[in-house]
Amino acid sequence: xxxxxxxxxxxxxxxxxxxxxxxxxxxxxxxxxxxxxxxxxxxxxxxxxxxxxxxxxxxxxxxxxxxxxxxxxxxxxxxxxxxxxxxxxxxxxxxxxxxxxxxxxxxxxxxxxxxxxxxxxxxxxxxxxxxxxxxxxxxxxxxxxxxxxxxxxxxxxxxxxxxxxxxxxxxxxxxxxxxxxxxxxxxxxxxxxxxxxxxxxxxxx
Length: 205
Known about the structure:
By secondary structure, this protein is an all-alpha fold. It has helices spanning 2-13, 21-29, 35-47, 53-67, 75-85, 90-96, 105-120, 133-139, 142-204.
């Protein structure tokens, strides 16, 4: 399953020419195509998917919702699971996980941790004992990471995940429906034009 997911990711986003080290480092801070072109590329990839507006919108929403969780490395699996439950498109779910990236992760982690602590009722940072996050991550002990870090982030991810999921679903649904309606009208018009040309050709014989 993991191999299949990795292969799908490579097929979706692979480059013809492998990027060098410096280009990879630069890409972590600034997209290779620029933010505007990257957004337009993402938009067209989503709009041109072959699926119903609901499936595409639910898939993108599932990918974005999974990106709010602290389980980096498992966002694809979470997105696919959510997309399956919502009858969403898996490719759209994979595209939606692009919301979680090196630029957004610091904001996501800080925001979900703060919201989670408020929801749980924990003390604010600086009002109680401090947490050595570097030491905890170096030891990679889940039992020590869960209560002070992962639990607040997971609970704090619920409100923004639901809010962004509903918002993105609505935006993508109507955008895809409008795009598909226009495309069907355009294809129907082209079909009529070809039929008219064929009829005129027959009459001219």
